[in-house]
Each structure stands twice: as C-alpha cells, then as structure tokens.
Amino acid sequence: MRWLFNLSFRHKIPLWTSFLISFSILVVGAALMAKAYEDMKRAVVISADNLGHTLANTVAPTLLHDDVWRAFEIVRSPIRAESARTPVQVDAVVVFGRDHRVFVSSHPEALPMLSEPASLGPDWLLLASRLANPIGNTSPLVLEPENSSYLYLALPITDKDAHLGHLVLRYAKSVFHPWFIDTIWQGLGLGLLVLTVLIPINWYWGSRMATPLVDLAQRMGMMMERPPEPLPPDLYPYQDELGQLFQAYDRMVLALRDKAALETEVVRSERLAAIGQLTAGIAHEINNPLAGLITAVDTLKLRRDLDPKALRHLDLIDRGLMQIRDTVAALLVQTRVQARPLSQHDLDDVHTLIQPQVAKRRVRLDWSAAMPPELPAPASLVRQILINLLLNAVQAAAEGGTVSLWLGRKEDSETCLSIIVRNDGSQLGEDQLAHLFEPFASSRPGGHGLGLWVTYQIVTQLDGRISARNLDDQVEFVVNLPLGDAPCNTASA
Q1: Which end of the chain has fewer beta carbons closer than 10 Å to its terminal beta carbon, N or C?
Q2: Cα(242)–Cα(236) distance, rounded to whole angstroms?
Q3: Phi, psi at 142, each rounded to 5°
Q4: Parallel, antiparallel or unpaired: strands 475-482 and 465-470
Q5: Distance separating alpha carbons of residues 320 and 297, to the nearest angstrom
Q6: Is it the case that residue 344 has pLDDT exceeding 70?
Q7: 3-state DSSP call for residue 437?
Q8: CA torsion, points 241, 245, 247, 252, in degrees to nearest 10?
C-alpha cells in the first residue's frame, strides 16, 4: 500500500480525488436507494391501510354471524380484483378470530381455517405474539420479520367498540422490485453522468495543481548541481498557498543567483588581485632590462653608417619595445596611459608581426583598415589589442580557414574607434562566453587565457568596451575605444 502514497502528486491527487468522488456517489446512492425503499414501503403501507380498513369494516358482520362463506368472498375479492398485478398487489388476506385462530383466509389450502399461528410458520407466530401483546403497538401494525420475504399489516376488527379479531394483509417484498430496479437504474445513470462531468474536471485541476509541484521538486533536486531556474510566471498564476510557495521559490532563486554572482565576483577579485601582484613583480623585473634595450636601440639609431633596411628594422624593434613598456605600464597603474598617436606604421607592424603565425596555420587573412595617417589613440596599447585578438583568432580558426580584421571609426563617429576581428573556428559555449575575459580561462590546449584578460584590462583602462558573440558560422570580437578625450558614446557592451 505504501507504493500508492509514493506516487507523484501528478497521479496521486487525481486518483485520490476520483476515489473520493466515486465513494461519495456510492454512499449518496446507497442512502437514496434506502430512502427509496422506505418510500416504497410507506406507499404500500398506505395502500394496504386503506384496503384493510375497507375489508375490516366489511368482514365484521360475518364474524358476528359466523358466516364463513361470506367472509371468504370478502377476503378473496381484492385478489380477484387486482389480477392485473399492480405494484401493491396483496399476496394473502387472513382473518383471525378472538381466539387468534384463522377464521378465514384467501388461500385456504396454504392457510387453512382454525389453524394455530404456530402451524403457519415463524412469521405468523411472531405476528400472533405481537397481536396478543398490544402494548406499544400502533394501528395498523406493520411487521417486517428478519430474513422474511413478506411484509405484514394487521388491523383490529371491531363492531361498536367490541373487539372481534384481526385482519392481516400479507405482501410479498418482490412487489418492491420493479420500483427498486427502476430507482437503481436511475441512480446509476445519474451517478455515471456526475462521474462523466466531475472526473475530467478533477483530473484537469489535479494535474493543474500537481504539475507546478512536480516541476518545483525537480528544480530543487538539481539545486546542488547548478543554480536553479525560476518557474515560468504563467505556470500557476494564482495567489493561494501554492502560488505563495512558488513566489517564495522564485525569490529564493533570485537570492541564490545574487549570492552566486557575489561569490563569483569575490573569487574573480581575489584571482585578479593575485594576478596583479604577480604582474607587478614581473613588470618590475621587465622594466630594468627593457630600459637598457631601449637605450641600446636609441644609441644604434644614432650611427650614421646604418643602411636604410637596418634602420627600418631598428624602428620596428623600437616601436615593439615601446609597446612592451606601455603595456606593462597599463597593467601596473589604474590611469590612462599617455602615448603617441596611432599611425599607419603601427598597423603595418602588427601585420608584419602576425604573418609567421598566419603562414604556419595556413590561414587566409582579410585585412581592412580605414584610417587617416594618425588617430588620437594610444598606439602601443592599440597595437597590443590588435596583436592579442588576431593571434587568438588565428589559433582558434580552422587550419586553412579565414580570419578577418576591420578597423575604423564606428559608424562614421568622430569619437569612437571600432575594431572587429572574426574567425571561422568553433563556436563559443555559454560557459566560455561567461568567463572569456578572466585569467587562465582558456579552453584551447596549451593556452593560458592571459591574452584576452590583458586585452580586457587595456580596453578597460582606455574607457572602452569589448564583447564577443557567436555569428552563424563565425566568432566575432568587437572593441570600441574612445578617440582622444572625447567619450565613445556609441560604444556597445
């Protein structure tokens, strides 16, 4: 039986409610049938009482004159007159004298004259004992012996207050059967009609109430695996106790999400703090030899015997060292780095520096840079952003795939520089997008995830914004940077 209570509410509520509805209909039906039986019995008693009084008044003179034959005709007449077998057909009529013996009966073969009640059967003996002790009896006396197929009605026969005997009418209970069967069929029809209407309504409302509970239980069961999802607002739009329970669950979900976001932010802050300390230490060690390298390059450039090709390489090295210095400075301080403006030479340097990786991966590079000779943007930091995004795109693209760069003013804005880098590599998952710009969040084998984190730090230092998204068959990174001191009002998140 325990398995029945272990069923889901989705099944248990409709089943139990259907059982209660069916049981209630059975109880009500049984009560109505019992009442119908009593009503039938009362109708028979009323009819028998009317017939009994008529017969008692008619048969009284025959008792006074001991006219048995006339009495027989009188008690036999109702049976002959009701040969059509009406529902209240009398089965037998018996007249008892003052000595409680049979004076006359409608069936002399079965109920012979002068018979003692004891010889007629237990029903007649019980009836005779009741008639012999009139205390508590009502008139007419209605007797329905247990385990008997008959109903008896007895009336006294009197003449001018003189007691002459009793008239007994016997009815077979089978006369009730037609009425009773009709009542049963009517009750069954009405019960089936009620069940036909109530059971579907019960299943609908049971499922309506149970489905949100089942959904709630499933979501709470998965709470340890991942943050739960709120319930759909139209799942149960009512304000009863269930509705209040679901609203409390949704509030709990929001609180858990805020808590998870706060914990994530705390962990991220701790990680960034650790990375910041590590970066500061490394940058300090880099700056010392870096200053020497910059001084050595400046000294070489002062020599007059250098050929133009060597001088171009020294310029490339010099701009690269400046880029390293500015990048390290951007990671060490929380202020905007003042540097030289971005020029076409910087874009050429970036194009030159990434060519070895492009050739190694056999990737096709679509390069589109629409810009004037100079832009008021820090050249070293923009170079670092471009290099990081392009190298990341080349590594993410399929071998023999395509990487594209578009650089220019965003939507012809004079205050916003836009950089768009795309690759045709694998799409980014939701978890990757959520942690894309965190340190050590790389999903590429051998990657450390610091390139995008450094890029994010630089963009943030420059008051810009960076975002990533999946296109139909490409992955796109978009960077919007302000030009000069004017804000980039059209920057997108």
Answers
A1: N
A2: 8
A3: -105, 125
A4: antiparallel
A5: 11
A6: yes
A7: coil
A8: 160
Q: In what order do the strands lie in the sheet with 364-369?
A: 364-369, 402-409, 416-423, 475-482, 465-470
Describe the crossing of helices 68-81 and 9-64 by its angle, rounded to 10 degrees: 150
Residue pair 242/213 in contact (Cβ under 8 Å)? The answer is yes
- CA angle 151-106-42, nearest 5°? 25
At the fourth CATH level, the homologous superfamily of domain 2-181 is: PAS domain (3.30.450.20)
> What is the rounded CA–CA span in Å between residue 318 and residue 322?
6
Phi, psi of 162 (to 5 degrees): -95, 130
Tell the burial category of 423 from Cβ atoms under 10 Å away from its Cβ (0-12, 13-18, 19+): buried
Find residue 163's DSSP bridge partners.
158
pLDDT at 338 over 60: no
DSSP state letter for 478: E
CB 457 within 8 Å of CB 336: no
User: By 3-state DSSP, what share of the chain in percent is helix, strand and coil, each rounded to 5?
Assistant: 55, 15, 25
Q: How far apart are CA 403 and CA 396, in angstroms?
A: 9
pLDDT digits (tens, 9 = 90+) for 388-447: 999 889 988 888 899 999 998 877 677 889 999 999 988 888 888 887 887 766 666 655
CATH class of the structural domain 336-482: alpha beta
Lowest mean pLDDT, pick from 285-289, 296-300, 344-348: 285-289
> Beta strand pairing status for 92-97 and 141-143?
unpaired
Q: How many angstroms separate the CA atoms of 253 and 238, rounded?
A: 19
Distances in whole angstroms, Cα of residue 2 to Cα of each of 14, 23, 47, 361: 17, 21, 55, 66
Domains of the chain by residue range: 2-181, 336-482
Residue whose entry in the numeric block shows the structure tokens 């390059």: 297
Helix (H/G/I), strand (E/B), else coil: 476: strand
The position carrying tokens 């060597």 is 310
Q: Cβ distance 105 to 92 under 8 Å?
A: yes
Using CA atoms, how far apart are residues 473 and 427, in angstroms rounded to an integer? 8
Structure tokens at 244: 């209040």
**Is 133:116 a contact under the CB 8 Å cutoff?**
no
Report which residue type is found at 93. V
Is the predicted pLDDT of residue 288 greater than 80, yes or no? no
- CA–CA separation, 363 and 357 (whole Å): 9
Give φ, ψ of 462 to 5 degrees.
-90, 10
- Residue 189: CB atoms within 10 Å: 10
First to last CA, the chain: 60
Is 230 in contact with 248 (CB distance < 8 Å)?
Answer: no
- Are the beta carbons of 173 and 143 closer than 8 angstroms? no
User: 212: buried, middle or exposed (CB in 10 Å: 19+, 13-18, 0-12)?
Assistant: buried
